């Protein structure tokens, strides 16, 4: 008799082409645009999606008359895992196509910005490059900038609001992410009826804090620190507990957080950016930056190219 146990390699009917087609369609690309990016015909992309849904036994995308309406509940559950599979595949292929990274690098990462799987990406980089010694420092973004200025880091990832001007022209700066900053709470508030604004906020030096206080000052409102912490998780928990109004990027909102916007009279906040800076001229620094940019599944671009 044949052994019908599931293969440890997974369902071999599912291909990377199936997954790439699904991700492109889930991101809002139509069938024609997805076909152009995959170098396949529109009908081939349609068949890839249909085949994937047949294998999984569920519908991933809502569509009507050839138009994508959005993800189904199953599609939303499936998408994060697919993105991780494709990112890890790209990481492994890229690592093997390049010389092995070696040497000692000191990296700064933010503890005041939610970065999806950044620590995992650094760990995988170390696994793929056994002769690379990574020393990671986690701190507030403002503290990482000070360490960069003092030549204490080879590479740093930090957040900023507004234009960032490198203090050293030799630094290479890459934009990893840009997203809106929001006032958040667990209940609705009328801005005009509030005399003082209780803030759940990061300490001095945080650009979220500076942006919030500047916006309040322009509207002649006083904001006080109802709860202050350098911990990202503590800030989120304090907002959820109703201790005050927080200032967080879109990716960091908890399920019970309500965005306070124009309807409630709250002033608009600026966009927040996640930047990566290569401060040292080591070849390993460039290699590591390339790896992290790829693993984040974000398109990196020089700061000078988007301003």
Automatic annotation (TrEMBL):
One family name in Pfam for this protein: LysR_substrate
Keywords, alphabetical: DNA-binding, Transcription, Transcription regulation
Cleavable signal peptide: none
Molecular functions per Gene Ontology: DNA binding; DNA-binding transcription factor activity
Domain named HTH lysR-type: residues: 14-71
Entry's family note: Belongs to the LysR transcriptional regulatory family.
Designated name of the protein: LysR, substrate-binding
Organism: Vreelandella titanicae BH1
